[in-house]
Amino acid sequence: MDQKTQNEAFNSYVKILFNSLGWKERAFAAQNLGQLKEGRATNILARALKSEKDDVVINRIIEAMGEIKDPKATMLIVNFLKQELEKPEEDQNKTRLFIVIESLMKIGDKRALEHLGILLDSCHSDIRKLTEEAFECIDPKWKLNIKSV
Questions:
Q1: CB atoms inside a 10 Å sphere around CB 50
Q2: CATH architecture of 1-68
Q3: Whole-prediction pTM value?
């Protein structure tokens, strides 16, 4: 895709993300912004997160931020992790947790490790396993670093 076509697609997805009444269209736009892998989308996606109410669209925005791999998105995503962890474990949105962990893993920012650490004790083995994979991906020496602390 040449630069002009990519810019047109980018602008089109941004318009859909902010103006479409349908959640499916907004989710599709967020997903496609992530697939463009342009850092300039991070701030736009962050702005969309502030006003978005639909859980599916929010999840797609978080996924898109992971695809872009911009460390600026780390703490925004961590905030969603914190929101889920404030709930009792049985009320936590497991889908959201998986998406958050995977996105933070793709970004690879070590600031996320502190916040992901609580999931290493999760009652759900699949969440625990994915969290360990995230730790391995973000900091392959994480076990040694924890022991030294």
A1: 7
A2: Alpha Horseshoe (1.25)
A3: 0.92
How is residue 19 annotated by DSSP? Answer: H
State phi, psi for 148 to the nearest 5 degrees: -75, -25
pLDDT tens for 29-86 read 999 999 999 999 999 999 999 999 999 999 999 999 999 999 999 999 999 999 999 9
Which token pair is 76? 């925004």
User: Is it true that 1-68 and 77-149 share their CATH fold?
Assistant: yes
Range 77-149: architecture per CATH: Alpha Horseshoe (1.25)
**Distance separating the N- and C-terminal Cα atoms of the chain:** 48
d(CA 83, CA 115): 11
CA dihedral 57, 49, 14, 108 (to 10 degrees): -90
